[in-house]
Amino acid sequence: MTAVTEAAPLPSRAAPRTPTVLVLAGKEIREGFRNRWVLATTLLLMALALTLAMLGSAPTGTVGASRLDVVTVSLASLTIFLVPLIALLLSHDAIAGEAERGTLLLLLAYPVSRTAVILGKFAGQLAILAFATTLGYGVAALAIGWDLQASAWIGFAAMVCASILLGGVFLALGLLASVLVRQRSTAGGISVGIWLFFVILYDMAFLGLLVASGGHALPPLLIDTLLALNPTDVYRLFTLGTGGAGDLTGIGALAAHSALTPPILVAILLAWIAAPLALAAVVFARREL
């Protein structure tokens, strides 16, 4: 592959072809294996998932719930805190880090558009996260045993897929942070702020609003809107508010009165992925290197 001389006009090129994005995604995956990201992430998720599977299924004899449903609830709660953090660690230096190392200029010297770089990095990082989540959580589910109802396995599979989507949201947010700044340390600080806001501070503010209402019911549309504005709440409503898991949590009652059905919740998560990615592509296309 030969270098092009007119590297500057890259932002104005047409949308990237799929093979180009796949090549860049493969590069990202190979770097993930080389940097031990894949191994470390998989082992971490597997160890925590196995621990929750062994300990979390103990109460099933008392509550009369499926062991896998209890594990699904435990893993969903773990996902809300851990998967966004892993995703942000994966993506926050994708652009800023390469710019600091001087490899970004070399990459853009090849006939690839900047949009292809964003999409390729996202696809590769999502593949890494999907592999780690599926294998790590899958091992925990298999440790429970095969003699379980099909509905419990469907709920577990839906939780794993939703966990990957949630990871995709924070991968996109991390990429956006990475194109907005030029130092990886600054991008890391922004990523920590993103994690704190969506995982902890937003829900604290939401609870504060409920307390400030003085026991008066908030309009259902307002509650649904506030839930949709936080991807972790969308994930929580999808995984803990439906199926067998909904019977084990208080979120099941909230989901029963919400207009946010599972297809709508999936669509919201996809929108949360698409919006930051599109914004990152626009910002990166106009960025001077």
List the helices and strands and how they pair.
Blueprint: H1 18-34, H2 37-56, H3 60-63, H4 67-91, H5 96-101, H6 103-108, H7 114-144, H8 150-180, H9 184-212, H10 220-228, H11 231-240, H12 243-246, H13 251-256, H14 262-286
Tally of discrete structural domains: 1
Question: How many individual β-strands?
Answer: 0
Helical/strand content category: mainly alpha
Parts with pLDDT < 50 across at least 5 consecutive residues: 1-17
The proportion of strand residues reads under 5%
* Rg, Cα atoms, Å: 21 Å
Tell me the overall shape: globular
H/I helix tally:
14
Account of the 3D structure:
Helix 1 crosses helix 7, helix 2 (37-56) packs parallel to helix 7 and helix 4 (67-91) packs antiparallel against helix 11 (231-240). The protein has one domain (14-286). The chain is an all-alpha fold and 289 residues long. The chain has 14 helices and no strands. Helix content is 77%, strand content 0%. The chain has helices at 18-34, 37-56, 60-63, 67-91, 96-101, 103-108, 114-144, 150-180, 184-212, 220-228, 231-240, 243-246, 251-256, 262-286. The two termini are 22 Å apart.
